[in-house]
Design a protein that fits this description.
Elements (H helix, E strand, L loop, with lengths): L3 E8 L27 E9 L33 H11 L4
Antiparallel strand pairs: 1-2
């Protein structure tokens, strides 16, 4: 398993921003009553991805997935300026 990370915002309900509907803002986590995403500052969250098979190896990935990436198993990651700044900081690309 290859460890990697993504950058996301956490809502006041405790769930990550990509667990909220991009149309209504409501949290899609079962049992959560949050109806409007109230996102805090971006944070680095650990994650991983396999090669798509139950027993196969994981796919090599960068240490941190770039903000704005789509199709990383989490829908589309936020690409706002704050996420870009945090990404530059943690990936060693800070200006």
């Amino acid at each position: 398993m290859t460890l990697m990370a993504a950058i996301a915002h956490r809502c006041a309900c405790g769930h990550l921003d990509f667990f909220h509907s991009s149309v209504t803002g409501a949290c899609t986590t079962e049992g959560c009553l949050c109806q409007t995403v109230n996102a805090g500052p971006p944070e680095v969250i650990p994650t991983w991805r396999s090669d798509g098979t139950p027993t196969g190896p994981t796919v090599e990935e960068p240490a941190v997935i770039a903000p704005g990436t789509r199709g990383a198993g989490m829908g589309g990651l936020c690409g706002c300026d704050a996420c870009q700044t945090l990404y530059a900081s943690v990936s060693g690309n800070a200006a």
